[in-house]
Task: inverse folding
């Protein structure tokens, strides 16, 4: 008999919840709502309310993906949510629902979801690179999540891909400064001489604007340097690119692939595949569910 769990994917601006069974199928439609801007316990109450709306007595547990650092005790540090320096989310959800609760960082949930039901299905060595307002990576090596000593493995935005330290790197890291959405926007502003967002750069590239394509190609080059370093260290079967900036598609990924081939260890470069996420926004929900099933 198929079991199911309640899964939640919390972001800085949105919250999604659904029931997910052991085959990766939704048992309830995904419900979405904004993340309360006030932060603190208001966000916890929003998660509780959203989960309660899809709860049935047959649920086996709860899995939650969070945008930050999830400690083993289920508490969370989430820098983009006010008041979440060490929010005891797991404890609060267990007290409210009386169910086993698994709280995990979203990057680990993303890579788990893609390896379970997405582009990397069946892969034992895979990296998921999420590129949006920031950059993070979930890593599976030899079939196991790579967490690091302080649960900080995968802070890819801080990877050094430039030989001179610039002031912007101090707050968000080198790779993130060049490849994340705000970094692409800053580069485009220097070209177009006006405020412009990353999504408009992508749209202009699709419309044939050479300058927009050059901005994305430069970001792709820096991304390729970062991916080459991942390939050299981890020798993955697949690197999955997700997040909002992945919508740039081959305007970003083709230059990244070319740079990777040029810089990475040749045999490892031939073995790896670079592709976009197949699950999109569902990766976090499915990954949270799978990790909850694994704990159960």
Result:
């Amino acid at each position: 008999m198929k079991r199911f769990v309640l899964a939640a994917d919390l972001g800085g601006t949105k919250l999604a919840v659904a029931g997910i069974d052991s085959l990766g199928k939704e048992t309830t439609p995904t419900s979405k709502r904004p993340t309360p801007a006030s932060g603190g316990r208001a966000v916890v109450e929003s998660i509780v309310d959203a989960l309660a709306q899809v709860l049935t007595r047959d649920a086996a547990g709860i899995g939650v993906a969070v945008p930050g650092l999830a400690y083993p005790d289920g508490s969370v540090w989430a820098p983009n949510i006010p008041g979440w320096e060490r929010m005891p989310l797991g404890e609060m959800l267990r007290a409210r629902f009386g169910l086993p609760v698994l709280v995990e960082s979203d990057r680990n949930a993303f890579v788990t979801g893609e390896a379970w039901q997405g582009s990397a299905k069946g892969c034992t060595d895979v990296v998921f690179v999420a590129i949006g307002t920031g950059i993070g990576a979930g890593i599976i090596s030899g079939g196991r999540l790579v967490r690091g000593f302080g649960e900080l493995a995968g802070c890819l935005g801080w990877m050094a891909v430039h030989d001179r330290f610039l002031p912007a790197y101090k707050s968000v890291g080198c790779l993130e400064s060049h490849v994340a959405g705000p970094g692409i926007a800053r580069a485009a502003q220097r070209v177009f001489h006006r405020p412009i967002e990353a999504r408009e750069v992508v749209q202009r590239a699709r419309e044939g604007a050479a300058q927009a394509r050059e901005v994305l190609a430069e970001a792709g080059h820096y991304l390729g340097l970062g991916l080459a370093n991942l390939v050299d260290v981890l020798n993955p079967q697949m690197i999955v690119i997700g997040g909002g900036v992945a919508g740039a598609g081959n305007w970003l990924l083709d230059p990244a692939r070319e740079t990777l081939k040029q810089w990475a260890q040749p045999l490892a470069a031939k073995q790896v595949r670079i592709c976009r996420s197949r699950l999109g926004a569902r990766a976090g929900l499915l990954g949270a569910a799978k990790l909850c099933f694994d704990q159960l």
Summary: The chain has a mean pLDDT of 95. Residues 74 and 91 are 7 Å apart (CA to CA).
